[in-house]
Design goal:
heterodimer, A: 8-stranded mixed β-sheet, 5-stranded antiparallel β-sheet, 19 strands, B: alpha/beta, 22 strands, about 20% strand
């Protein structure tokens, strides 16, 4: 290991990499996080902040950890428990009630509620509500504050973060990753965690590993603050989002745009006129907020695996590499994903969740043109001309 | 046939029904000259200007810093429109030249197709009036958006009646709707001196000029005119404060205790080129002595077919000449004469004004962030008292990890995150951060702009005429089949029994 390195190097100062590094530091290990820009600048800091992922093997751990995170980190995350999801159409209502039923099946409190109950919990909702669900689990936090909390908590434990340090390739010797080549020279390591979001595919390819990812932009809009509602974690009507503790309404949803990768990663661009379609749906979801002014929109670049499920895996070869992508659902699960990754690094296995379906080798044999086959590619040039 | 992801954005954004061969934003000297020239050259020209503004926007100090000093005349759109046309003969000339002049129409967004935004069916802008919003396509866009007010904090700067020089010009000359009577002007550069002379000419009571530095900054001839008129220019005012009452500003107290009775304090410390639309669209901008300016090749921005003219360029150009040159460039492809970038050290000047500001002075009015809270990267009060570990964090500790970053400051303190869209604090937060990092005034971080570049109500921004193609398969997320199947269902016969996350929508076409 070269002097500039660390026993454990994490590529990616997003929410997953930072959480993993923090858990590793908590376990007493020396960790170095390499981030090409600023911590949490990409999708980790630009998302809906939700944490109610009933579909994930990490769900129980997500629910167990979030209420403790402020105390564990020592910095505020703006976490608030519970959610209301409500519908304006029978089809959405059926879906939301199904989601609540899965929550109950997993042992958590969730009620089907009628329109009047929705309006009591979410006073900005209107007469168009059909009904909804009230989840006593799940919740939401402030992504921007949370990523910084992870970073600071990691530093408090002696972990190091090098911002503005881009990794160009992994360096292998005798079947192991020994170092990474970065914009600031070569950095040695004993174990490497790749949690570099959209960049993971390109980085892993330099070590001969195949992690297929599609890249897309998703957009959100934010309004000026409104008086706080009894439940801020309120969404539905094909939107995800929340009322922040400041009072702003922040919502996203709807079509994404698949992007190309160039050498520096996906071509990031600002939002599209989809802003207006989002504004319409927020005004429909919360008609009593329709007068609120939209003060910004933003977009994040998100990676997805072909089946839309995460990869959290420590492949047998090379033996000192752990790979993590959360496939577009990383923020809410981050307390749990980081802990799972730390266990893979330290013990080779996770003792609280079954990660058997999140292995890298499930994509072995995928056709090289898998993105084209699914249409996970930018709009054809003739459309764009 | 290429396979397309049915949930993706491709094909969902329609080509706008509204279209301009040459679209000009801003009906000031540069914009009207551009529109008239383009029309004379035979182009189909649309000229939009957000004036007359809605009183609601003016109350939010958008786009200029009106400081609440509007008369009730601004509540009467017809009168405002009349005043505006009477005060700007070029608008009538544009009408006569065949330009489709649209007043009271705001351009709030610019969208250009290309890598990263290939789903867009063409170049377009977002427009709105007081009733609705819509998209308008263009072949060529000329941004002639002028400048906006730049503020610096001082004790009492959050009082109604503290306003910007560009807003004062607008209220006096465009609308005849200025509610103040007794005026103190901050600054002694050309903008301040000219504003002072204008105030005298308009019969306002000009009390004094107040300058932070120890000498008059602008043209001595202009200063001499003011002094001849009996005006005092108070120099070296490193410590002054504005006091007020229910109606806002009542007096400004100088360093030596002298009280200047006034109802308006007009900041005239320079303007910032209005680059919001270009910046929010991903067009290239750079730091310069006058502030953030567009990266230009002649008058061409980094975005294809997006030109800039007049004061928003940050160039030392004659507004009308640059407008005409932009029009010829758009219609005929002629390359205009190049102009030199302005080297006036406005940022350094504004930074000097900020130097004496005490830590208890609010920098971001919308989110109530003081200078001290910014330097401490203190979380906002609604979160509760800071934790012990939070107290150990500050801008200084953040700077150990890398250069100053506006995004971090925004996310941690909420400075620049308010409803004024950082019009009142963008520059000064950058200057404060640059100083804390030991950098020069032009080396501070830039807080990017986002569409909509005006704060517009949800109901107005909403696309109420959205087609079925947008609604069809609208999914809350990526809609990848099986991605949200509960983990404990996988491998059981329950897979596939869940209801669809994006219910089918009937095609209405």
């Amino acid at each position: 290991m070269s002097p500039s390195g660390a026993p454990i190097v994490v590529i990616g100062g997003g929410v997953t990499g930072l959480s993993a590094a923090w858990w590793l530091a908590r376990a007493g290990h020396r960790v170095l996080v390499l981030e090409k820009g600023v911590v949490g600048f990409e999708a980790s800091g630009r998302n809906g902040g939700g944490a109610s992922h009933y579909h994930s093997p990490l769900f129980h751990e997500e629910q167990r950890l979030w209420p403790q995170m402020d105390e564990l980190l020592g910095y505020p995350t703006e976490w608030r428990q519970e959610r209301v999801i409500f519908a304006l159409t029978p089809e959405h209502l059926a879906y939301y009630r199904y989601m609540a039923s899965v929550g109950r099946e997993l042992g958590y409190g969730a009620e089907d509620i009628d329109a009047r109950q929705v309006r009591e919990l979410v006073p900005l909702a209107g007469d168009t509500v059909l009904g909804g669900v009230h989840l006593h689990y799940g919740g939401h936090a402030n992504p921007q504050r949370t990523v910084q909390a992870y970073a600071w908590a990691l530093q408090d434990l002696g972990g190091e973060i090098r911002q503005h340090t881009a990794v160009r390739r992994l360096i292998s010797r005798d079947g192991r990753i020994v170092a990474v080549e970065t914009s600031a020279g070569e950095i040695g390591l004993d174990h490497l965690v790749v949690a570099a979001g959209p960049h993971s595919e390109r980085l892993l390819a330099t070590a001969g590993l195949f992690l297929p990812l599609g890249m897309a932009r998703a957009e959100m809009i934010v309004t000026e603050p409104a008086p706080l509602m009894p439940v801020g974690g309120a969404d539905g009507h094909g939107l995800y989002g929340r009322q922040t503790l400041r009072g702003n309404l922040a919502f996203g949803g709807g079509p994404h745009e698949w992007l190309d990768m160039d050498a520096d990663g996906p071509v990031a661009r600002p939002t599209s006129p989809l802003t207006r379609n989002l504004a319409r749906r927020v005004a429909e979801l919360l008609p009593k907020a329709a007068h609120l002014r939209v003060i910004r929109s933003w977009a994040g670049i998100i990676e997805n695996t072909p089946d839309g499920r995460p990869v959290i895996d420590r492949p047998a070869d090379p033996g000192n590499l752990t790979v993590a992508t959360m496939s577009s659902v990383g923020f809410g699960l981050s307390p749990a994903s980081g802990r799972a990754i730390s266990q893979l690094v330290l013990d080779g296995q996770c003792d609280f969740a079954d990660l058997g379906r999140l292995k890298l080798d499930r994509f072995a044999g995928l056709a090289a043109d898998w993105r084209e086959q699914r249409g996970w590619t930018p709009a054809p040039a003739e459309v764009a001309a | 046939m290429t396979v397309r992801d049915p949930i993706a954005l491709d094909g969902r954004i329609p080509a706008p029904k509204d279209h301009a061969q040459v679209l000009v934003v801003g009906a000031g000297p540069a914009g009207t000259a551009a529109a008239i020239e383009a029309a004379k050259l035979g182009a189909q020209v649309v000229l939009v200007d957000e004036n007359p503004l809605s009183p609601g926007l003016m109350g939010l100090d958008a786009p200029l810093w009106f400081g609440g000093r509007m008369t009730t005349a601004v509540q009467q759109p017809a009168r405002m429109l009349e005043q505006m046309i009477a005060g700007n003969p070029a608008i009538a000339e544009a009408f006569e030249a065949g330009v489709d002049v649209r007043l009271g129409v705001t351009c709030w967004g610019l969208y250009a197709p290309g890598p990263g935004l290939a789903a867009l069916p063409g170049r377009m802008v977002g427009l709105s009036d007081d009733q609705r919003s819509w998209m308008c396509g263009f072949d060529h866009l000329i941004l002639a958006t002028g400048q906006r007010d730049v503020a610096v904090a001082f004790p009492g700067w959050d009082q109604p009646g503290v306003m910007g020089a560009f807003a004062l010009h607008s209220l006096l000359n465009r609308y005849e709707a200025f509610a103040g009577r007794r005026l103190v002007i901050l600054g002694s550069g050309d903008l301040a001196l000219k504003t002072g002379l204008m105030a005298l000419e308009r019969g306002l009571e000009l009390v004094a000029l107040v300058e932070r530095l120890d000498s008059v900054q602008g043209d001595p001839a202009l200063a001499a005119q003011l002094i001849q008129a009996g005006l005092a220019i108070h120099l070296n005012q490193t410590d002054f404060a504005v006091q007020g009452g229910l109606d806002g500003v009542e007096r400004l107290t100088l360093r030596d205790g002298t009280q200047l009775a006034c109802d308006t304090v007009c900041m005239a410390l320079g303007g910032a080129p209005a680059i919001e639309l270009l910046d929010a669209a991903g067009g290239a901008t750079r730091s310069s002595p006058v502030g953030r300016v567009p990266v230009l090749d002649g008058l061409k921005s980094s975005l294809s077919r997006v030109l800039m003219a007049g004061d928003c360029t940050g160039l030392t150009v004659d507004a009308e000449e640059s407008g005409r040159a932009a029009a010829r460039l758009a219609v005929l492809g002629e390359v205009p004469v190049t102009a030199a970038p302005s080297e006036t050290p406005l940022l350094a000047y504004q930074s000097a004004w900020l130097e004496p500001v005490r830590e208890d002075v609010i920098l971001c009015q919308c989110e109530t962030v003081t200078l001290g809270e910014l330097l401490d990267v203190r979380a906002p009060a609604y979160i509760g008292p800071p934790t012990e570990r939070s107290k150990a964090r500050s801008l200084a500790t953040l700077l150990q990890d890398g250069p100053p970053n506006q995004d971090q400051i925004k996310r941690l303190t909420r400075a620049c995150m308010g409803v004024c869209q950082a019009r009142r604090c963008r520059e000064q937060v950058s200057l404060v951060m640059a100083r804390a990092a030991g950098l020069g005034p032009t080396e501070g971080p830039h807080a990017g702009h986002r569409a909509p570049v005006r704060p517009l109500p949800l109901s107005l921004l909403a696309d109420w005429e959205e087609g079925a193609v947008m609604a069809r398969d609208w999914d809350v997320w990526f809609g990848i089949e099986g991605a949200w199947t509960p983990h404990h269902w996988i491998g059981t016969d329950r897979v596939g029994t869940q209801p669809p996350s994006h219910p089918p929508v009937e095609d209405d076409q």
